[in-house]
Amino acid sequence: MNSMARPFSSLWPHQPPPERRLPSTQVLNTYELLEQILSHLPMIDLFAHLRLSKSWRSIILRSTRLQENMFLTYPSQPICPEPFTYNVQVYCCWNKGQTCYRLPSLTFNPATSMIAPYNISDTTSPMALRQPLAKFRVHQHLFARFTIEDIPDLEPEDRPSWRRMFITHPPLRAVDFEFFAKDDDFRRLVVLWNPVGITFGDLIDGRWRMARDYEATTGKTAVGEIECSFHLLHPQHDPMEEIWTSAPLLCLVHCFSFSASRHVLSASAKDSDRIEQPKVWE
């Protein structure tokens, strides 16, 4: 008998045993479970995971919950500003062209770091970008005011995904955008308007459009201060109520300077008597 004879069973096609999947692998390949896990990650990690895995990218882009956590969507419609009439006889406010909103609360994008002013809630979340797009600081003044300390120095052609992030939840459809030239009395007030909600990209593009507008008008290099602001009507009684014909005001203002090289914090309250009538940028 030939000792090298093959057993009869070896003549059948060989089928390897089924691969055993680790429990962790099964979890990460289950949409609902992975969505739950990703929902607890900081915003910066969610943006990073868009480039980490095709399957994870698909889940992040399809998940409404994760898109909300990244401030890329919101379940309700953007908030429209309300019409109000300023009573100049009562108080000489430095900005007479406010865009005002009536909201019980407002959540700022966690890509910023700030202290909660007055009636604004849920703004002290530890979830923040490692290099924030903008840092806000609150001043306990006549109005609550927050200021941009830094904003990315990017050309409008750059299209990173953070550009689509709303600056607030719920999104706001309009913010005031005002430019003060450094070397002369040139001042320009416009209203940035986005029907789906103002984003960080709108602020960046608005800054560059304002700079080009100034340079085309004056022939000078755009060096000065831009103040981007919006205002919330305070829900509680306030002695400043008589300033407005309908309700008191919680004022939120953030300012930044721009030049050809770098954008630096500049917070100031200026008389706006010479400000041109606002125009709308969509």
TrEMBL record:
For the region Disordered, give the residue spans.
1-21
Q: Which InterPro entries match?
A: F-box-like_dom_sf, F-box_dom
- Which residue numbers delimit the F-box domain? 29-69
Protein name per its UniProtKB record: F-box domain-containing protein
Organism placement in taxonomy: Eukaryota, Fungi, Dikarya, Ascomycota, Pezizomycotina
